[in-house]
Specification:
This protein has 305 residues and is an alpha+beta fold. 27% of the residues lie in helices and 29% in strands. Strands 8, 9, 10, 11, 12, 13, 14, 15 and 16 form a 9-stranded mixed beta sheet that branches. Strands 1, 2, 3, 4, 5, 6, 7 and 17 form an 8-stranded antiparallel beta sheet that branches. Helix 2 crosses helix 3. The longest helix has 14 residues, at 53-66. It starts with 6 loop residues before the first strand and ends with a strand. It binds 4'-deoxy-4'-aminopyridoxal-5'-phosphate (PMP).
């Protein structure tokens, strides 16, 4: 596993990893003018396969639309660029980072004179919250930082600048010895982690905050909806009070990087029995069964390389 590969796709061509650079006066460097995705490529029994490629690239284009960033490629071209990058780097499994940013033009706040660049990088990356987290679970805290109010930064856009908020949440959590921080929204309801959505299990049913609770509607969150329903587990999007975390039977977080990670403690309060819960385990088994190619791809998630 290494945070490096040979080539990065940049504006239509594959360039050497070390040469994929941009000017220090690029708009993105000063104002965070970028949209990006995190996508996983899994090594399945039937070859390498990209997880929900179209949904990720569609969300990337939607993020650009919200910020009036015209993309000089089509969705299909960026999807092909992802596959080309994986093949060029001979990666069997990878974390893929397609991103679109404003380069060097003018340095005023108005971005419209700055060119829009598109790039795709991919590298081998392991388990985001540590190799044991998927089974043992993690201990998290509620952050003192809130997610943005709806009329400030649009949280449905996955854009670079939003991650300054995520960094505050993550750094505070790590500083205090937690694996992750969960932020509340402007009204004090549970929103999400710095890079994950959150679910609670109460009485056999799944609850997760609605997208109006200042969160990024995750693609893994949606995959969990599909898996849960296929297993006969009900899912409801519902505003959640902080104390609903403390009293839940089970909690887990979802994300492309975090996949489905159990949470066993919140603010040092033990959740349920303090170990990964049975519903979390069932959801993981089906999710990983599909991504490892051991179960049929019944939701059409995978694009085989
Ligand atoms: N929320 C935030 C803030 C994130 O960064 C992510 C990771 N992209 C998620 C939720 C989960 O989204 P997804 O399942 O699409 O990776």
């Amino acid at each position: 596993m290494a945070f490096k590969a040979d080539k990065i796709w940049m504006d239509g061509t594959l360039v050497d990893w070390d040469k994929a650079s941009t000017h220090v006066l690029s708009h993105v460097v000063h104002y965070g003018t970028s949209a990006f995705e995190g996508v996983r490529c899994y090594k399945t029994q039937n070859g390498s396969a990209v997880m929900r490629l179209h949904d990720h690239i569609k969300r990337l284009f939607d993020s650009c639309k919200i910020y009036r960033m015209p993309v000089p490629y089509t969705i299909e071209q960026v999807e092909s660029a992802v596959l080309e990058t994986l093949r060029a780097n001979k990666l069997e499994q990878a974390y893929i980072r397609p991103f679109i940013f404003r380069g060097f033009g003018e340095l005023g706040v108005n971005p419209s004179k700055c060119p829009v660049h598109v790039a795709v990088a991919a590298w081998d990356w392991g388990k985001y919250l540590g190799p044991e987290a998927l089974e043992k679970g993690v201990s998290v805290c509620v952050s003192s930082w809130r997610r943005a109010a709806p009329d400030t930064f649009p949280t449905m856009a996955k854009v670079g600048a939003n991650y300054m908020n995520s960094q505050l949440i993550k750094l505070e959590a790590l500083e205090n010895g937690y694996a992750e921080g969960i932020a509340l929204d402007i009204n004090g309801y549970v929103s999400e982690g710095s890079g994950e959505n959150i679910f609670v299990v109460i009485g056999g049913k799944l609850y997760t905050p609605p997208s109006s609770s200042a969160l990024l509607p995750g693609i893994t969150r949606h995959s969990v909806f599909q898996v849960a329903r296929s297993l006969g587990i009900e899912v409801e999007q519902h505003q959640l009070q902080r104390e609903a975390l403390y009293t839940a039977d089970e909690i887990f977080m979802t994300g492309t990087a975090a996949e489905i990670t159990p949470v066993t403690m919140v603010d040092k309060i033990t959740i349920g029995t303090g170990v990964r819960g049975p519903i979390t385990k069932r959801l993981q088994e089906k999710f990983f069964g599909i991504t490892e190619g051991k179960l049929p791809d019944e939701f059409g998630w995978l694009t085989v390389l």
